[in-house]
């Protein structure tokens, strides 16, 4: 089934809803109301379950390889960069924009490294699936690059969130215009982080191959001067935690003005109800599958990760990234399980990757449910012959080019220096039950939309057009 058939023609989008049986609107609403007490009880028990699971995981937590002396060195180097200012600072900004011809003085090995990185960036930055695979390959080749595995797992979540826009819980909720704009927001964030970070990681790979530091070439890829001392110290000490924190801070600042605070996305995505609903039901969750469903008596995977309440805040996103790093690399069970999952499960963008007992990537296996919430509760999230549709990402959206971006260096004051600190462990680091409740919330929103549609007497097919 090609989901993009008749889509993207002169900016017009068509989507089809499913038929929700012969139930009357009042029957759907009655079913929702009758199941609410059980849903409320389920919510309360879910929180207790996740707290208990988190406590067990935290008992085995280990010390991160954080070196405060190294962190002080990086902070001092960054403060010195800012103190220089004036003419020298303008020269550094100019260096950040140097074109390729200004690097002809480099030796042949360095020029070959630059050409290879350019080629790899064009090849691997096509879509979320290729980016996610590239991060994992680098981590497998260089396990000291902790951030690359963190980026792999977070990129998987970005792909799942994109596919959700076309999944079985989003129909009836979003217009095609809202779907496409939200997708562009998620895709652009994913692509720009990769565009900035991937050359940095590849410079390290080439430095290892040549046996000498190539980090003086960072400006060639428009990398912020903020990252220079992190890479210089990492080359000497291999302090994985410090480098990961530097990259977390850098990448979130990199997309702050270019995506999150961009006027277009502010007006059309961030402050719109569809995005707020999406945040309630998935966009603000990052899950790390660390125990497969078949090993759990409930038939569901165990999930580490975090739930963030305020996606739009820069400080909140940086704190989230540091929490995720601590969960992934400070809790042995989560790290080992996530690595096993990543190595054995290719990323497709479908949530069936980690929960095949609840989600299906095949539209032919799906039948309409008039009341998703009641069905999920009644069958303990093991639908009887019915799965929630979660399509592969490449069945939903084609490769999406984006317009050129501004190249200015975001590092202009000392605000970010205060974020250079050891990641701490969140109290809630297992979110298995919380994720289950998130799916249930979305199911109830879906059911309410189905009831409202029938109440308004709308037909089986709706058509919405718009140009993003």
From TrEMBL:
It comes from the Bacteria. InterPro entries: DUF2515. This is DUF2515 domain-containing protein. It comes from Paenibacillus yonginensis. The lineage of its organism: Bacteria, Bacillati, Bacillota, Bacilli, Bacillales.
């Amino acid at each position: 089934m090609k989901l993009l058939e008749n889509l993207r023609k002169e900016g017009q989008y068509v989507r089809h809803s499913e038929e929700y049986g012969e139930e009357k609107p009042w029957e759907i609403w009655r079913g929702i109301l009758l199941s609410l007490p059980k849903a409320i009880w389920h919510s309360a028990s879910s929180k207790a379950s996740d707290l208990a699971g988190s406590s067990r995981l935290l008992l085995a937590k280990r010390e991160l390889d954080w070196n405060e002396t190294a962190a002080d060195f990086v902070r001092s180097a960054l403060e010195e960069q800012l103190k220089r200012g004036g003419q020298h600072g303008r020269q550094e900004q100019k260096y950040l924009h140097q074109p390729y011809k200004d690097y002809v003085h480099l030796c042949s090995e360095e020029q070959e490294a630059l050409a290879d990185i350019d080629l790899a960036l064009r090849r691997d930055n096509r879509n979320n699936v290729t980016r996610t695979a590239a991060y994992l390959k680098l981590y497998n080749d260089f396990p000291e690059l902790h951030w690359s595995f963190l980026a792999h797992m977070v990129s998987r979540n970005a792909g799942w969130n994109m596919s959700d826009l076309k999944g079985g819980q989003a129909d009836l909720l979003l217009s095609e215009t809202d779907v496409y704009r939200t997708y562009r927001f998620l895709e652009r964030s994913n692509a720009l982080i990769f565009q900035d970070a991937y050359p940095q990681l590849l410079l390290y790979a080439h430095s290892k191959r040549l046996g000498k530091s190539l980090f003086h070439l960072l400006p060639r890829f428009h990398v912020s001067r903020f990252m220079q001392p992190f890479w210089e110290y990492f080359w000497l000490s291999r302090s994985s935690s410090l480098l990961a924190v530097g990259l977390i801070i850098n990448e979130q600042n990199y997309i702050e003005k270019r995506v999150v605070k961009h006027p277009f996305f502010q007006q059309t995505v961030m402050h719109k109800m569809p995005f707020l609903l999406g945040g309630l039901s998935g966009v603000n969750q990052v899950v790390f599958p660390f125990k497969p469903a078949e090993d759990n008596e409930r038939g569901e995977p165990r999930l580490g990760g975090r739930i963030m309440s305020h996606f739009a805040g820069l400080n909140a996103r940086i704190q989230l990234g540091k929490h995720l790093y601590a969960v992934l690399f400070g809790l042995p069970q989560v790290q080992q399980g996530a690595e096993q999952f990543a190595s054995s499960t290719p990323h497709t963008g479908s949530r069936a990757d980690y929960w095949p007992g609840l989600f299906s990537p095949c539209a032919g296996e799906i039948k309409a449910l008039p009341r998703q919430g009641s069905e999920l509760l009644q069958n303990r999230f093991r639908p009887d012959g019915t799965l929630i549709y979660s399509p592969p990402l490449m069945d939903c959206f084609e490769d999406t080019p984006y317009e050129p971006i501004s190249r200015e260096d975001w590092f202009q004051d000392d605000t970010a220096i205060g974020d250079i600190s050891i990641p701490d462990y969140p109290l809630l680091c297992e979110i298995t039950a919380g994720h289950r409740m998130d799916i249930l919330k979305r199911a109830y929103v879906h059911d309410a939309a189905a009831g409202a549609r029938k109440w308004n007497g709308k037909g089986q097919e709706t058509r919405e057009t718009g140009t993003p």
